Amino acid sequence: xxxxxxxxxxxxxxxxxxxxxxxxxxxxxxxxxxxxxxxxxxxxxxxxxxxxxxxxxxxxxxxxxxxxxxxxxxxxxxxxxxxxxxxxxxxxxxxxxxxxxxxxxxxxxxxxxxxxxxxxxxxxxxxxxxxxxxxxxxxxxxxxxxxxxxxxxxxxxxxxxxxxxxxxxxxxxxxxxxxxxxxxxxxxxxxxxxxxxxxxxxxxxxxxxxxxxxxxxxxxxxxxxxxxxxxxxxxxxxxxxxxxxxxxxxxxxxxxxxxxxxxxxxxxxxxxxxxxxxx
Length: 279
What we know:
Layout: H1 4-15, E1 17-20, H2 26-41, H3 45-50, E2 58-59, H4 66-70, H5 73-81, E3 88-97, E4 104-107, E5 126-131, E6 142-144, H6 154-158, H7 165-168, E7 185-187, E8 194-198, E9 203-205, E10 214-222, H8 230-237, H9 248-254
Antiparallel strand pairs: 1-8, 2-3, 3-10, 4-9, 5-8, 5-10, 6-7, 6-9
C-alpha cells in the first residue's frame, strides 16, 4: 500500500505538483503577511501597471526577513518527504494580484532547456508557493495543466517566452494565454498551505474578482542540485550575490541552502523555451 508521503512524491513526478496543508503556523503566516504588505504598500502605481497580469514581482531579497521563510523547517521537512533532503535555494518573489485584476497568463518557468537533463523525470527546479489568503477561482487561485512538465501541450507554442513584457501588460485580453482550457485543473488552497510544483509545469491563475489583494510568495528551490550538471550549478551559484547584502544573521539562516560551485563548467545559457522533443 502506498503511504501519504509516497503519494505526494508520485503526484509531483506524475502530475507536476502537490499540496502540503497548514505548513505556515498562524504566527509565521502573520509575519509573512506583514512583511509582504509593507513592501506592496511601498510600490508606486507604475509597478502594478507594468505587472498587470502578474500583479506584482517584488524580489524577496528586498527584505532579509524572508531568509526565515527560505529556511523554514516545516518546509524543508516537506521536501524531505518528497525525497529531497539536500535542496538549494536561488530566489523568490512576492506576487500579489490587486483587487479586480486580470488572470495570470499560462507559462512555465524552467530556464535550462538547453541541457538534456531538462527532459528527464527528476525536476531540476521546484516552485514553492505560499498563499497568504484562502484562494478560489473568484479571487485568483492557481490553475495548472497536469502532466505538462513532461508532455507537450498546445499552450507551449502559444507562450514561447514566459513573463514577456506584452503578456505582463495584459495588452490583448483576448489572447489565448489568458483563457481557460478544458483540461485545466483548479488548485484552491487555504492560507498557510504550501503548493510545491515542477518549474516545467504549465500554470497560471484566475482573475482576482474580489475587493481584496491576493498574495502568494513564490520561492525557487533546486532539489537535486548536488547531482545536477555542472553548467546548471555554475549558473545558479552566480545568482547568489544578493545574499551577501543581507545582515549576517540572515545569511547564516540560508548558508547551507545557497548554491555553491567550484568546478570549471561554463554556466548554462538561459533558455526558457522547451524544445520540440518535450514528450
